[in-house]
């Protein structure tokens, strides 16, 4: 019976803490030039960065380019990661800057895309149409926000980041993030009300 105790304690460990420790270990290995650790980190972050960057631009080739640029910086600068933030915050911060750089170079308007994969789970065509219409309204409303406001919304609701992590990612004070979120929510509320 006593041998079961450590197993129960292990099961109670926080998955986020384990993931953060694993990420930090990968970064330490990458800093030493470990290609396999880099590949593992790339596989872990590729889908998350893709989802985040889809809210920057609608051009898939640009998303792939930004991710590649981001991961190149991760590879080259891994030795500078100092554990003052989560690895995910550090990587998203790089992706954010690379995304802005790519958008500036193309001088294009940014837009937030709706992930229509969710529609496949809905059984009724009428429900699918209602869902699609609501998502389209939301997409239109989000398109009216500034880039900074859209990024705060995306990082909060789609990537589960806390305000302090977003502030680190966007390199601005936490109060600025709170203000952007306040104005974004208020504008979204009024736009969605106007659209209906």
TrEMBL record:
The entry's keywords: Sigma factor, Transcription, Transcription regulation
Pfam families: Sigma70_r2, Sigma70_r4_2
Entry-linked InterPro entries: RNA_pol_sigma-70-like, RNA_pol_sigma-70_dom, RNA_pol_sigma70_r2, RNA_pol_sigma70_r4_t2, RNA_pol_sigma_r2, RNA_pol_sigma_r3/r4-like, WH-like_DNA-bd_sf
Domain RNA polymerase sigma factor 70 region 4 type: 136-188
Domain RNA polymerase sigma-70 region: 41-107
Transmembrane portions of the chain: none
Family: Belongs to the sigma-70 factor family. ECF subfamily.
NCBIfam families: sigma70-ECF
Name by which UniProt lists this protein: Sigma-70 family RNA polymerase sigma factor
Protein species of origin: Herbaspirillum huttiense subsp. lycopersici
